[in-house]
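Exercise 7. Given the components listed, write out the predicted structure of the assembled complex. Treat all entries as one system.
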Amino acid sequence: MEVIITEQILTTDGIPLKESLKKAERNNKIRAFFLVFPLLIFIIITFVVPIGDMMLRSVDDSQINTVYEKTFEEYKKWDKSKDELPPESVYKALFLEIAYGDKLQLGRALTRMNYSKSGWKSLIKKTQRGIKKIVKSGEEPLSYKQTLIDINENWADPTFWYAMGQMINKQTSIYYWNAIDRTFDQDQNVVMQNEDRRVYVSTWIKTFKVSIYVTFFCLLLGFPVAHLLASLPLRYSNILMIFVLLPFWTSLLVRTTAWIVMLQQNGVINDVLVWLGILSDDGRIQMVYNQTGTIIAMTQILLPFMILPLYSVMKVIPKSHMRAAQNLGAKPTIAFIRVYLPQTIPGMSAGGLLVFVLAIGYFITPELVGGKDGQLIGHWIAYHLKTTLNWGLCSALGAILLGIMLILYWLYNKIVGIDNIKLG
Amino acid sequence: MALPSYSTPSQRIFYYLYLFFCGTVLFFLVAPLVAIIPISFSQSPFMIFTDGMVAWPPDPEAWSFRWYRYMVGICEDENLTTPCSNKWMVGTVNSFFIGFISTFIATALGTLAALGLSRPHMPYKGLIMSILISPMIVPLIITAAGMFFFYAKVNLVYTFTGVILAHVALSTPFVVITVTATLVGFDNNMVRASQSLGARPLRTFFKVVMPLILPGVISGALFAFITSFDEVVIVMFMASLDQLTIPKQMWAGIRQEISPVILCMATCLVILSIFLLTTVELLRRRSEKLRGITPR
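Answer.
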């Protein structure tokens, strides 16, 4: 006899089972989320927000807009096709804002003005002094335009006024253009920087070049080692694994120092080469403080990041595949290329991407062993952060680098999955 | 992998070449680290093998503990070009101080988060995981720049607090990854069993879950510690001039006064890393045994 259930199933509390289950699920979700919550909020505050703040800073131009608020407002009304120079109202606003503005803020804005055209700094400083005298004397100028031009004739130079046009918006793309050696001309067109200021494009290219070299050498050196580790019995491979893991665990600065000791002109490698008679004593090679040194040191430092993913992929390739291929008549080389190699591609791409991504963001090693021509883009980020204080350009360089990294990691995620990262 | 008995001579030659190549690469990996150890016992003020050191029979005059004494702040030579100071010891104390505090916070936060992430009910798992891992992925120089700008706004630059917060952020991904890996294959029935026997959640955690994941937590903590201990970029930008740490002092040493003192400290760090490596390796095996995974 069939029993037809017409009423809902209830729990002992009288709540329908379905709802009760939903509630329990939701509680579970909330509980799981609460465990993650402290760290998530911590990372967001201490890490994600600062990075986001840096992104905003790379387009931010609000500081100068607060200082010269009135001037810029009047400036926007100036019809460039009709008058060669801006109208009196612009000069007046400028005069008043320099005369009564906050000194500290005016000083900060100077640096920004100089990025658009060199000469601004001295012009504003001279003007500041001139205006001070006039304000002290208590006379109100009849024509602000004439007064400013009397103080410095550059105020009659339209190029300065055109350059001001770059700054009148609260957002600017100038830092991004600067980061690839471009700048604005007086009509707001993007043009190349002066010959002597072009450094970034070549550094970007060098960064990619060095990273590609390092990735290639890591693959070349890492593949056979990973293969050996994967094919040896466990008790031998565990011992050899120490050789891979020891550098991995050793301080980066120790490894960098060690390479300076090895590669310098009186270093160990030169000593050995001289002792072997390959080099004469005064023919010692300079292998450090140049690009060669950077590539050698970075290859050794990043090699474990290539070997470990390759090893974990090779470990699970059944050995019978190669034997089967040879049984079917393939020569060892053919069997290797057609059967073994394709199966290691996930490992090669994972290791390759990891090494490449780490290499393009490298800072410490190139900075210490790179000398003049071994510097990568990280050098310029640090330089603008600490030395020139051009934080806009620093942020823009960082943002571009981060963008490249994100694209590469997106690829990495597609190929291997971000949560498959393993350590040791 | 040994050669089968039927291999041809050319295969044999290739095989030995392959072994030789692998040996060279492994040598390339470790040789620099080994080479600095003897030089740290040098008598000369340069980071080189002096003639006396490589002479046969060895010349005892060429070797000394001079630079180790210098490192711990015992000054006996008057005619040194670089002033002798206790900077290295100050750096050591600071490094351990920053390292311990940030490891403690990172391990606590990271373990909790890993427990949450391993639950089957976790919503938005992929997104949250990628946010939590991101400090490990973003290049240090970008992190340092971003944090410097932001921490300057809230007056945290040039303080230990700022450095520690930054180090915690950098090292939590390692804790999250290692503990999550330990939790793979964790038998949730044990938690249920414990609860059905009347244990409250906290007691269950400390008596049942914690002992099982402890190896992973300790490895994660060691990873976190070495991350903080080895970190120099953040310290360089965010710490004030007199807030020295070992890596910062080494950086300054390489930049300014190239002397074997750096190598003495480097030797100590290599020994520390051997110790850490061994501990992590033993813990990994123990964890696999505990979880019933036979070693591969």
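Discussion: Residues 317 and 343 of chain A are 7 Å apart (CA to CA). The first helix of chain A runs from residue 17 to 57.
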